[in-house]
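Follow-up to my post from last week.
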Amino acid sequence: DTGVSQNPRHKITKRGQNVTFRCDPISEHNRLYWYRQTLGQGPEFLTYFQNEAQLEKSRLLSDRFSAERPKGSFSTLEIQRTEQGDSAMYLCASRRGGQDTQYFGPGTRLTVL
Amino acid sequence: GQNIDQPTEMTATEGAIVQINCTYQTSGFNGLFWYQQHAGEAPTFLSYNVLDGLEEKGRFSSFLSRSKGYSYLLLKELQMKDSASYLCAPMDSNYQLIWGAGTKLIIKP
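User reply:
Got it. Predicted complex:
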């Protein structure tokens, strides 16, 4: 257990539905990352927060995806109008500043039927 | 551009030694991380190198050559539980990790 938690751990939804995932980082970590990972691939960067500010968002990310970190603590990732191609593991990671290590939560596995 | 190159898959025998190579190109460099990822689980941190040379941590060692854009992870006394994917992730000038597809390591008895 790294201290980063994610909920839910698994989510099955029907195409077209909206889903929201939550990440609680390690408390003293002000940097928070969201990634997506599919089988046989490495983590694909989605977005990055420093405190409550969203500093970077992947250019490949559809506008159906939105993320927030309202008080600089936990974060949520919402996917609207889900598609089958959204099926993946969604990973959250957190770290302190500089060259500090990123620690991952257990992930949320999304299946879109 | 930014690029990571690792073998897709490697096979080794229990009790043996295996070396997983990684070459990289990044915009700036702030060190290189190795992560282990078991199937269906999240990546877990193994090692971090920022200076050239070898860092040893128990059965695992990691080497870095910044001038060559090269790193390797050395696993000794392999155990069945070492069957996993190993991800090489250099950190660029913005302190962002660059991820490749990783190397799937299969350990046979």
